[in-house]
Each structure stands twice: as C-alpha cells, then as structure tokens.
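Entry 14. Ran structure prediction on the chain below.
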Amino acid sequence: MRNLVSSTAFLALFCAVPATAQQFQSATNFPGAALWSEGVECADVDKDGDLDIFVADGGNFNAAGIARQNLLWINQTVQGTPYGLVDESVARLGVHTSHAKGVTTGDIDGDGWVDALFVSAFFTSPPFVYVNQGAPNPGFFTFEGVARGFVTNYSSGGAQFADLDDDGDLDVIINERYNSGTGGAPHLFFNNGAGFFTENAAALGAPNKASQMDVQLADIDNDWDFDFVGFNKASSAPGQYVMRNNGAGAFSDSSSLVVANSGSVYEGEVGDLDGDLDLDLFFTSLSGFSEGIARNNFAPAGPLTFTNLATFGGDDDNEIALFDYDVDGDYDVLVGSLRAGSEKLYRNNGALSFTDQSAQVQNTADATLDLTVADLNNDGKYDIVTVQGESGSFINKFLRNTGASDTLAPVYTAVNAPVSPAASGPWVVKGKVRDQVLDDSVDYVTGSTTYVVQAVAVDAAVSVVAGGAFSTAALAASTGTRLTFTNASGGNANIVCSTDPYAFASGTLANGGTFDAVVVEPGTYVFQNTLSAATCTVTVSGSTSTGAWRKAGSQIQRYTLIDTLGGAGVRVSYELRARDWPGNVRAITGYFDLTPGFAGTAFCAGDGSGTACPCGNVGGAGRGCASSVSAIGARLQATGNPSLSTDTVILAGSGMPNSSALYFQGTTQQSGGLGAVFGDGLRCAGGSIVRLGTKTNVGGSSIYPAGGDQTVSVRGAISAPGSRTYQVWYRNAAAFCTADTFNLSNGFAIVWGA
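Output, structure tokens:
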C-alpha cells in the first residue's frame, strides 16, 4: 500500500511565461528551501510515466558545510498537473543527510526499477545507495549503502554506472579527492549481479590525481566495452583520466592522449559530435576558462588519438549536456554557467563547427553548478533543469522548451551479434543507440527485443527484374525469414522498407548486387524500389519469443536471448527496438547462425556419391535429388541430444515445396547406405518403417517434433540404445522427372544412447 507523506506543500510549477522569441523560458522555481545544490538527475522512479528529479544538496566548495537531506521530487504530470512537483524526499528516501556533490541512477539489482547513488565530499560519509522497493511500493527506497558494500568515507564529486566486466550487471566508478590539491585514486566497484559491490583497485589501476570532478564511462575506442574518462580540475599533466578497458573490467592508462590542464575543468561529456561514429570529448575550460573539443581520431580503425580544437567562450562554467535542441539529428552543446548570468547553448553546424545560440535561453542571472535535460511535462520537448550554488540566491530552476517536438526516432549506430556461437545459448546482442539527449550517460532510451530460434534456416529470395519491378509483388513468409533481394534489372536499384518503425535500406544496389533484410515480427512489410516505385509486400506470420533488455551504460543496450529449442537451433533471427521518452521507436533486425551439435550423420545423398538419381537430377552435396523447386534438392538434418532419457532431437527438413512432408524412421540404411531409386529421388531409410508425422512446409521447411508432438524416440518406439535411420518424403506435384509426384531428402543416421 502506498503511503504518501509530503515534506512540503504541493507546488504546481506551471505558470505563464512572457511572450518572447527565446526557445527556453523560465517557468518557475522548484520546491523546497533555496540551498546550495551540486547535482541533479531525472528518472521515472515510480514508473508512472513522468520523470522525477533527484537533487544532491551539498554546500561549500573547499570544506564541509551543513549536511543536507538527499532530495527526491515526484512529478505529478501524469496525475494531471504539468510541471507539478512534490518534495517527497523524506517519505521515499528516509531521513539521510550528507555533503552530496553528485547523484547517479541505474538498476543495480536487475529488477527493472531505478536505484540511486549519492556521493559526498570531504570524507564525511560513504556513498549512499537507495534501492527501489519496486512493484510492492513503487518509487520508495531502502537505504542500503553500507550493506551493499560501500563502507568507506570518500571525498567524491561524481560517479557513474556501467557494465564494466560484461557480465550483465551495472558496476560503478566513484572518483576521489574532490577539489583537493592532494592526489588520490578513483574507486572501481564490481557488482555481483544482485546489487552488492566489491572494490577492485587492481583492476582499475588508476594513478593518483588531484581535484577529481566528473566520471564518464563510454566506449571511446569502439571495442564494445566501457572505458573510463575522468575530468579533473588539476593543472599537472596529464590532468585527466583516460583508462581503456580490456573488455573484462581490467584497465590500462592512456591518460597522456588528452591534453587539458587548465586547472578549471569541472565537467565534460563524451559523445559523437561530428557524426564519424567515434566519441569526442567536450570540456568546460579546455584552455583557461574557454570550452573546447578534443576530437577523437579513432574512426574508422584507430589508433586512438585526440586533437584539441579551437576553443570558444570564456566564463567559469560548470556543466555540459549534449542535446539536439533544434531536432536536426546532431548533438548541440548546453553549458551550465556559473558566471555568465545565463546558460550557454551552442548549435552544431556539422564538421565540428558550432554557433553560439545562447540567446535562445532566458537569462536567469544565477550560478549554475549542474543541469540536465528532461521532458518534464510529456509534451515531446526536452526542457532544461538547473541547480544553483556557490553564489547568488541558490534557486533551482526549470526552463520550458517552446520549440519543436522531438519527432526523431533513436538511431542504431552499430550492432554487435555473436559469430557462430554454440546452439545452446543464451546469446547476447548489443546495440549502440544514439538519441537526442546525452547527459552523464542518461538518454531516456529504453529497449526491447523479440527473436526466433530456427531449427531450419528459413530464407526467401526476391529479384528486381528488368524495368525495376520485383519478381513477386506479394510474398508470404514465416517469422525470422531472411529475405535476399537480388538486383537482376540490368541497372541500379534502391530498396527501402516504408513500414514504420523499420529502416531497411539497401542504398544504391548495382546490377548483380544483393541486399538482405530479416523479418521477425508478424505483420505486413512493404518494400519499394525507389528508382521504379515498384513494391513488394511481405506478409509475415508465426510467433516470436521475447528476450531481456538492459541498459549496459552510456549509449549501449544489452539484449539477452534464451535458447528455445534445447540446443537444436541452427539460426537466430532477432529484432531490437529502441524507444525514446517522447515515444519515437526504431527497430533493427539481424540474424546469426549457430554452431549446432548435430545428432548424427548424413548418408545416401543424391549428389552422385551413391545410387544415381532417376532422371539425372543430381542434387547438392549431402542433399537429396533435385526437385522442381530446388536444383540442389531437399536436406534433412538433426540436432539435439539423442538420449532415450533426455531426448531433445529435432529433425529438420528444408529445400522442399510448400507441400506435405512425411518424416519417417527406419532401422537400416537402404542398399548399404547408397539408396535405391524411389519416385523422383532415393529411398535411404530401410528396414522396419515408422511414420513419425506429417507436416506442412512453410518457406520450404518443417521440423519434427513441433507443436505438442511426441519426441522422436517415443514416437519411433525406441526402447533400447541403438541405431536408427531417418528421411523425409515430400509431395512434388509438378511435372518433373518421373511420373511420380514425390521426392525425398537425403538420409540421416542417429545412434541413440540410454
């Protein structure tokens, strides 16, 4: 039962704003007393569909002031009050005070609910961990810092979560020696999977540095792990941390690659500012008090180096957020300024050229120590949240976005799928996702995945023929089918899918070129050749399985797929989806072939190695004789465990017409394994015959058992270990070869164990 006790009166934040051309206009101030605030982060802690706000209050810059309550403001937009916040800090977090300098969020225990970590300066307390109680009490937290492994007092300015050892949970790096001339080393804590942490200083191996201010965990060298970039106020070279991850959570020092020793670096962000698919660094005070970019030169293939570009600005600034405020698909830069009187906004023109657009932000004459970007009223526009300290009135503010709504779907910039993994699973696919916001790894993008494990790899072919038309205007396919489009038009083709939220696109396809598209979810997909306006409508039917999604860290999503065929699969087709806060969705599909554990041995092929096929209709290696629909013939394979006690064998036939197919079992190999002519093919399985089951092929394929069928050993009445032979007989009614209207696959022999 939810108990709600507000520590302050309800405050509705919406109010009229003056008519002005400025895109970001001050709406009002936030609830609570005007106190020195150092950190802010937004998250939907109660899963009610609006973003709530954590605030780290921690006064004073050089020494500890008064310890303040850690704050949580609950958003009431969904309850009917846009921008309405209630201070429920005590009710939801409990009474806990600290000299907090930063707050970061993440799901540390894998239960699907946001948890929070507050870090404090001046060695007055250990990190505070708040564990979300989840479904029984959404958005209410249990205070468990010491119990979760954080027992030592640090002087920290920042922290960030990411899966540093690639084991599927969130680890954390916490910096040290906040605003101190004395050096120290940051702290790496590994998660045990249940949200309990153990420090491993040796794995990080970081040298001592002074005045550590900010932590960023991001893949700066494009190897799919999270490296550590630490932004520090120190002036001794190398002043910043650049620690490269080996993929297993062991780091090496590359700090000399970055030169930024102004002594005033309070904050930085890591993101792709020039669209070349590597991550650049943006600094406050790269040189003096001037902002600037260290361009990453890694793309396309390394080595990792950085080049400092010309600086701009010149005030004592504190915070950076990357934010596509003009919705043109690239990251603009928002700067929280301590001295300028208003925040700064730099529009990205491309090619690392920026134009000062600070006039788009209303001058609020305050001293910003941190800011973030969030759609607080669910209108599809990302607003600005600022928190104040050090000078002025310490009044935290909200600036409403009056510009265009975000209508751009997230973009998958890369996908990392396993290569020929074992058929037993589980399998992990990762996606790099870019959207319109990136602030301390927060982007408000969530994900999901569906997939199909295939016992037979299902493919379908479509051609672009002369004149630019498709060889078929309509095609039926099963879930997980790989479509291969071949350009046989004699000219160029350009194939796209106009079905939202997919973005299949071949680009210019020269004559003879091919393009693959995998269709996973049931539904209708419309493909078009944009050079001729011809269309091909693909209708997909069948079922899929749902995988697990988890944010691994900044801009990397982790999707876990579980084996559904007991190790008998040969291919996995998957669909990944990313959804941003306004509801824009992008889907991307792919597949990977498995390394199956075959349950036996093929024999009696119609490839000329045994008895000749009846009409010279030689098939492909290891397959049956050719048919009217397949010049290489049908193929039978078997995967799984041929054990009478734990039978997981699946017989999989492919390369057949979409007709009936009879799976049958024998006790011998016909004609000593060479086979005998039968219909348009060869009879391979002989002796005592058992009909296992008749299936209807879809996409030329079928399997036995499926849909509640008895296992092969039970249906085949195998009572003791021994050898059996298998084959598929299928209807082929077209006039072909002999007067008979059937053909067969190769044979397959299995030795059954106990």
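The first strand starts at residue 24 and ends at 29. Will compare against last week's run tomorrow.
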